[in-house]
Amino acid sequence: LNTTIYRRTNGYVLVSSRTQTSRSILLKLIEAGLLVKRPLAELVLNVTKSNHAHVREAVGLLNGNQSRYARLDEAGCVRAAQIGRARSLLRHQTSRRLAEAAETTRIKLQELRQDHVIQCASSRYQLLRADIRSLLCEGAQTRAK
What we know:
Distance between the termini: 57 Å
Helix content: 55-70%
Structural class: mainly alpha
Largest sheet: 2 strands, antiparallel
Radius of gyration: 20 Å
Strand content: 5-15%
């Protein structure tokens, strides 16, 4: 099934890297009576390449504020995909012993990763500022020292 189960301190994590396997698992969980995460599972079952960004946003809303500042926005997903493609190209070039091309790709990959870190930090900062402004508009007050 191309899945892996990891033990965590508070339970287990099932990881699947294949879309079809993930869909099968979600369908079986729903059939077995999944309750708490059912709306989330049903939403994810309808994901396509064209609605990926919309579904990610909706999943974030259903999940609440957990990991809110760690989630990738649409631009972050695009950058992550670019990094993945560059990593794959580097593996290919390295396995074919294309040293010059691999070194160029390695440098490009490092630049992509650095840019991704900076852009993610900027996105988190903007989201945090927006959340703070929203809270202040709703009447939140800062503590006096």
